[in-house]
User: Fold these one by one.
Assistant:
Number 1:
Amino acid sequence: MDSNRTGYEYPDETEIGQWTENHMEHVIELREKALVFARESGADYLLMIDSDVYLTNPESLTTLVAKNLEICAPMLQTDGYYSNFWCGMTEDYYYKRTEDYSQILFREITGCFSVPMIHTCVLINLTLKTSDLLTYDPKKAESYDGPTDDIITFAVNAQNIGMKRYICNDIQYGFTQTPPTKHDKEVNFIEVEKKNLLNLKMELVTSGTPLPLDDDLEIYVQYPSPGSYRLDETYVLNLERRPERRRLMELSLKELGLKYKMFKAIDYKELTPQIIHDLHIHVMPKYEDPYHKRPMKLGEIGCFLSHYYIWRRVVLNGYRRVLVLEDDINFVPNFKEEFSEFMDNLERIFAWDFVYIGRKVLYDEELSESRNIVRPRYSYWTLGYIISSLGAQKLINAQPLKKLLPVDEFIPIMFDEHPNATWKSHFKYRNLIAYSASPLLVYPTHFTGQDGYISDTEGSIIHDVHTEDSDNDEDEMSKLAFQASSITTYGDADPLNINDRFYEPKTTNESYMSWNHNLYKTEL
């Protein structure tokens, strides 16, 4: 390398990130030197890996070598449709879209597949005699008439000498960044690269394999200062026995720069018959889960109570905008920018009580209110939502503990979009003004049936309605509903110690580093 160059300046370069002919020739030179050095060193294999590759599976190299293939690559994930292979190549040697690309990318089929192009992270078997003819240099490639390009030269040369290239997606190997587009470079190349890296880091955190960060490098990593995102408060629900979820959420919100408080969610294991009695909880008569055809579970009661007590906190503090997040969510790429645009549009709406930012859409044909806001129909899940003090008051005034059903059934009832007329009849005032982000801004980390999917509600036990308080006095219930919106402390009638469940996250740089290391080792 020329020590006089800065690392990104070339004689024919006019802007940062520009792939000029001089730039490409320099990359070709580096790759060719690495290939020649590996041969002359007597290496059996050469792993040609770019700096923006993150192999999160420590068994990646062992697994690939054991396949004994000529040339292969681990399939790398990104936050989009981009990956490190092509399934098709045009006559002039450029990318060609094919149907099998998505099948491999989304692991609809798994294994190792022969493809015309692999790049970014490539394992070359140097024990084969034909590998002596491999090259990245267009000048050395026999019968090559393509562009001055390292990966195209290598792929075409390998094809000409009879060495197959394979992409392997049999396990999750790791990730890479989506390269900037021409438009990105025209806007602000460096900022786009930063956003792409943030999106990748968020994807890695969500997958349970955050990038390990060396203690000595922590001082060079800058995180955004925690901000409110134009919210009065943000609460994250987390069960105390799910510390790995809490840590992953704390890492995500640290990267996003979102200020928040934790709420120690109510575990079904805490809900003794005495507590059910003390809270005057009564499950809706003849309630049956519409899919599983079973009674309500204690986990669903705990989930409802967790949201319920946050609603109380919203009312007690008179908050205008509170974001509620569950701990098993995945933020969309560019979440901060997308959320900001969403808030711009929400502020133009005259009145709202409740706004989903993550849910399971059950019915189509929802009415659009703006470019990214709709009026929701019957929906499931409470992954993330914004609620106002008035909206929380409406939910509390409905006295839901008196005729309890799962929270994601209750919410659609309250904005009068639930298909079950019998259930709706238990709630006289169904006037919650609800909206939803569209497209949604958060999604589940895992869907039902996927590896790693855990449901703390489905995994709990059936609630025995015979343990409920038989006293269903209307005056007592009305009194409880009034207390929910007027008291400022929970006093003696607080068997779940609600005030103690709200707490500030204790994330310092030191704990962040240790969590990152420990979590990485634990998950892998």
Number 2:
Amino acid sequence: MGAKELMFIILIVNVFWLSSSLSEEGKALMLFKNGLDKESHKLLSSWNESSQFPCKWTGITCDKFQKVSAIDLASLNLEGSLNSSVSSLHSLKRIDLSHNRLTGSIPPSFLNLKNLEELVLENNYLSGRIPPELGQMRSLRLLSLGVNNLQGEIPAELIGMKELAFLNLTVNYLSGGIPAQLGNLTKLQVLRLGLNNLTGPIPMELGRLHKLQILELFENPLGGRIPEGIFVLRNLTVLYLDNNLLSGNISQSLGKYSDISRVSFSSNSLTGNLPPQICQRGRLQLLSVNRNNFSGGIPMSIRNCNSLLRLWLDRNQLEGSITNALGEYPSLTYLDISFNHLHGEIPPVLGQCHNLIVLVMSGNNLTGTIPLEITGLKKLAVLNISSNHIRGSIPPEIGNISTLFRINMSNNELTGTIPVQIGKLTALRTLALSRNNLYGEIPSEIGHLQRLRELRLDGNNFTGSIPARVGNLVNLQRNLDLSYNSLSGTIPAQLSNLESLKILNLSHNNLTGRIPSSFQDLRSLDTLDLSYNHLEGPLWRCA
């Protein structure tokens, strides 16, 4: 045998030895890789058979015995199926394949991973049922399967996970009831089941979860009453039960025993009073109870709740005065108390809420004037005080709130003129001052509001002519309503520049002259009302 032949044989033997030297765990990982698409193979290029152990591969961690202890491949945009081959990696403590494009079902063989403590598969495209066999994973502390396409019922067998502290099944297509057996997972701290199709009542057994900090059951068709035991969980900080079919009263104990920080009951059929001590411990940041049938007053603990970030109380049957019910909230960004039966004056102290972005108080029985302090809110984007009994004039200082995006003061008892300073609000999209007692001329400075999409000044006592500069509002789309005033003069031909406008109402005024022929070019116009004026000439059909 020649030297060349001998060298060739040695090379073949070495290649064979290298390929066969890859550990069994490495081979299992290669099987997982083979279930992925070509682009994923490029991302996992370090996964190859050139070494015996996979410990230096992308996303792989080994223990001191060179056994694979963790797979961390989150947010790599991996695409393909979830291969069951990883079930043979018995030293695994953590699997994180979240935020990828993995498909297929969750392998029941995962039950073989007896040492696994964290299984994170959220934000993929996994389908099928949650394998009941997962309940045999006794060491599991964290199970996150949220934002997938999982179906079927939540297996009652999950109670076998005695160490489980975190369970996330949110945003799937799970159906059936919430297993009462989950109440036996006494180490559970986080339970997220929102955005599914779960039905039936909330099991009273969940009140046994004394270590529970976060409970999210939002956007399911869950019905019945909320179990009393949930309200007295001393470690509870987050409670999201919104967008269900829940009814009955809520416990007056909420907030008394725990440092509750975020509560949402919105869009249910809940009744009775709100818990008076809900912010007793001074940690409440978010309270959302809108779209229910709550009655009584605003809880007394809200006034001094300096921790508040967002407060939604709208669309209930709340009553009582707001004058002393609301306080100074240095971090508050959103306040909505609209469509209740509240009365009193707008508290000037709200002017100290320097981070306030949205202030909505419409649809109540509020009186008094617009506090000058409100005009100091430099971040305010939405101001809606419509459908109340607010009187007095619009403060000229409102022009200093350059961030205003929407103003609605309609259906009040406001008097005086529109301040010319309103023309400084160049970010404004909506200006609605309908059905008040405003008078004087419409200021031509309104023509500076180039971003305006809706202008409603109807039902007032405005006189003079329509400013030609209104024709500069080329972004008007929804509505230009100047009806039911005492406007006179001719219709400015410049209004034909409003090519995106859908509704134009100039009715019930004292306008004279001919209808501009250029109106026929308003191709987006759906409704044109010029009735009850003194106009003449033909009316073209809008193209």
Number 3:
Amino acid sequence: MNWVCAASLLFASAVVVCSSPIWYESLYRGGAYTSDAVFPGEQYWTSEDGEWRAFAYTGIRYASAKRFEPSTLNRNHDYLRNTSQPKRGFVCPQIANEAPYSSGVPLPLNEDCLYLDIYIPPVFKNHQNLGWSKWPVLMWIHGGQFKMGHKDAYSAGNLAMSSGNIVVVPNYRLGPFGFLSTGDHVASGNWALYDLKLAVKWVHNNIQGFGGEKTKLTLAGERAGAALVSMLLLDDDVRGLVHGAVTFSGNMFSPWAVQSDPAAVTKRLAIDVGCSNDTKLLTACLKRLTTVELLDSAARVERQMTDLLGNSLWAPVVDGLQIQFLPSWLLDGPTWVLKGGYVTGYSTNDAAWPLLKKIPRVFGHGTIDQEWIYATFIPSLLEFVQRHCDKPSNQQHMIQTVYDKYGFLSANSPAQLTEKILRLTNDVFFVIPAIKESSMYAKQSSVSTGNQLFVISSDDSYETRSISPNPETAHLFGLVQGSTLSSNRSIEAVSRELRRLVGHIVRYGTGFGTQFNQKLGNQIILGNGHEWQSTRSNMDELLKFWEPLHKAGCA
């Protein structure tokens, strides 16, 4: 029995197919060799007898970039000898107190932030008595509304230990540094997508030195990170390097995932700091600002321009390069083949966190009523999802249609109104995008059982459900910086099942249910029984209701 077969019995339930040998004595001692450098590891776990050790290789600079320019792959690792540099590298600039799972410790912010960490499962000491098989690789892309978050927010060692897979977590540029666009060729935007494509390429080129199998690379992410995974797969080269993907609560069809008017945002930023409106001049002007000056200005502009639902000012854009057209066109447009599986899904509680942050009155009993929902909330929601098109002429009819569909008139209390707002928002922000992407990949993938829709459900009312930004992430990693999961059977069961799903995709490139079919409405659901169950529901009806509303005003 080789190491990975043995380790799978100790740390994961899946069976691992053993393959060709590879040198790994250095990995037991905390050293990884690539063609460019020797990377020192930091031990994050050891068995009581010292026979097994697990190392994390942190602060690896995979790329470098100038402001508002595409990043370039890094091959110079002289920084490893710089003792004054943070061991884990720098964190991409952001408003530090907004960062998810902030521990209160100041973040080492710097525009030189394109670093990644690699967490390896435990290695056995007596390797000469065991064979060797390379580990599958999971690259996790963090969320944070495209403007905050970082790789070190996750205790990725927990996931590497429990799954028996390598886990890679990269940083990417955020806010204006990652997404500013002038709407033309001067500063086209999507700088974060350039970063992440290079992270995928770097891992593919170097992961064997860490014991990884480069042909078994899976991309995963949550919320904004999930949308970025979805957009990365638009690239032929990226699809050629990965064998599967899984996204939690977001994808490119999410109404918040693409900025509709990036030039207007950039011009408002230019006005705030006194730059010219000419795109060449304002880009040069913004490049001259200090990091803090640009962050402060972006925060002021966000306060001025954010609407009721918190439209993300800094987000991917249709630039004709990284994203060639609106994602909605893909449903009836070009086809491609993904050699592996794509699994996407949502939680029935997903809408609670953004509503709590953006419209807290939704959860304050007595502060919402029928009039506010009809005159303010539903019109704002429709305007949000239709913002890529002209304002439709029959807006009032649409408001009434949505109001009736979700049964607001039948609500007998503020709590019932809140539940209906949650359901409406969840459908628009998370459910419908998940159905669309599942349908698209089910039609196009070469893997007949690889593409599925999953739902994490709760039968409880919103009043008894916990409201947190990334509950699935906390379950998957077990511990996220500043947030621990208390140990009880229910939480352990959900964590186990989420890891089982992700582990299956990472190892085999597919889900473990039947191929998704929108008309059948087949899906796998993780409910209060805390085990994945196959079920069906009529999803075609929901799409048929919302699709005309989404496209209203579009030519």
Number 4:
Amino acid sequence: MSRLSLHQQFCALDNSFKQLPIDLLTSLIRFLSHESTDLTYDLHLMLYNYMLTLFSTEMYRPITTTTMMLRDDDDDDDDDKQRIESNVFLTLLMRMYTDKLIPENDIYIFIKQLYVNITTDKPRPNASNGLLNSIGNAASYLLLIPWSAYRYFFPPGDGTSRSGPLSDLSLLTLLAITQYHNPPNGNPFRRLTNSIQDTLFVDLDTSGSSSPNNNRFIIAISMSTLYERIIISPSSDKNLLLLYYLLLDNPNFFRYVQSRTDIDSLVLPLLQVLYSSFEEKPQQVYMILIIILILSQDTLFNANVHSLVIHQVLWYKERLLKDISLGGLLMVVLIKSILFNLSKLRDVNLHMNCLAILANLSSNIAQIHPYPATRLVKLLEVLTHRFIKLKKVLSSSPQMYSAAGDNGDNHNNNNSQLEISITDINSGELQTHFDFLHTILQIVNNTLTYRATSNLHLIYSLLHHSEYLSDLVATNDEMLSDISTNILNILSFFTNELAAEKTTEDWSTERILSFLETKSKQMLIPPSNPEGILRFQYEEVSDSYEFITPYMWTIIYNFMGRKWDANNITLFQIHHTSSLSDPLPLETSEGVIGTTKNITESAINI
């Protein structure tokens, strides 16, 4: 069947769906709502593959076609036709739910069964027990499915999955349904995610399917089992997308994750990907940063990561890290990502997400490890030098800067992080650097002002590297100057006390730290100012589908053995030379998932 004839095949002239596709989806949903058995396991796999194949028409239309659906146009019939042609069966599924073409309970049972399949991860039964093999044994010459068809419906996967095929296909089906962009009414299955509850806190009747109070169907799953299933491989693409939707849309799952005492089992694998695959896996990096940003919006998470000590980090190569808090390790990896992005990628959204996480973590920084303290001071120094050099370039060559800004060409940065040419500057780069620098200054200032006693290594590092702060005081930027002056005043207090106490003999690091601890207790701590606490909140943008939809279908394409016609896929780029297990590259510039909203009244909104 031609892609161009899908609308004619399944829709009437008034854009209403014919009964055949409605009956087809209804039958699939009702059968797959039942738990698989040894006899039906292979049939369930076949039908999940079939359903994903029905949904896959979205891969053959560019994402801009979906954007056109949002245009203001009086021709509603054309809009409906374009929406249907984009993805016939997903559009139909949305209408079946919203227009009550299928009982609501059937939808709820189907979605719940998807989660049950994901969490139970039922293994594939022995081949001798399967329904298809039983049929083959009974009528081998007539009914046995050819090997080519068998391999089509039961592909080997991408070679990286740690779960069974039924669990994987259920998760991919759930993601395909949840991510679908369905203007103008929105995706009802996305809203359904918000209502999923934990079985531990829901009073169910004997059937376990409805509330005795209002007879309304409730999707209740074990959040504990779901979390345990995710952390088996939290950095896999499938699990990252599932984490994103659950943390963002479901408050019950969000609260459960925050209550876990082993949060390192989730965060450490994510940090390892950030550390080792910043260039190779940009889509994963982007998703991981947003997931950590969502987690860091909760003060309990920030307190937990700063109190949980990691005794050794084997995958960190720059130096041996021992007895560092998870929060400290998170700061180290984020700062490394910022410095790398600053020198090569120069992606503003990545900068904003990294700095937003650092800002959220800063309210609970305590007993900071020497290495993250040193790296934080280094980041402050790099941002300061870049900001001052940018400002000098603009003030000395405004006409050249204007021409470069109008040209809009961005050239690669020089090898040094501090070297900046006029052609590298765009119209908003100075303001962007100002916002970044102001955020880091606030983090350092708040830590020294309110938690100096518990962050002695930060004071020690600043005493060795703070001369550049005087350059900020000399600028005409009042906000930067005021914060820098306060930091220098605090450092001057310790410097003067050290000068008065020290004799000609050299002091060891341990002795200096002990002295700093004693003197820090003598500092006057001002009353806590809630408005001065840095807090950033993630907000999903309306066109997030421009990133998520290609990303999700790339995952499905890789997992299912690339059975589709690759030459006609336009949703994402395909590299024919890559191996089956390699993820296909997807540029994050094709779409932005969300933005960081500064909810600190006294801070600059970045």
